[in-house]
Amino acid sequence: MSARREVAAYFTRLGIVAFGGPAAHIAMMREELVRRRRWVTDEQFLDLLGITNLIPGPNSTEMAIHLGYTRAGAWGLVLGGVCFIVPAMLIVLALAWAYVRWGALPITTSLLYGVKPVIIAIVVQAMWGLARTAVRGPLLAGAFVASAALALAGVHELIVLFGAGVLAMLLAARPRAVAGAVALLAWASPARALAAATAAAGGVALGTMTLVFLKIGAVLYGSGYVLLAFLRADFVERLGWLTDRQLLDAVAVGQVTPGPVFTTATFIGFVLAGLPGALLATVAIFLPSFVFVAASRPWLPRLRASRRAAGFLDGVNVAALGLMAVVAWQLGRAAIVDTITAALALAAAALLVTTRVNSVWLIAAGGVVGVAWRALGP
Question: What burial class does residue 185 get, using C-beta atoms within 10 Å of its C-beta: 0-12 exposed, 13-18 middle, 19+ buried?
Answer without folding.
Answer: buried
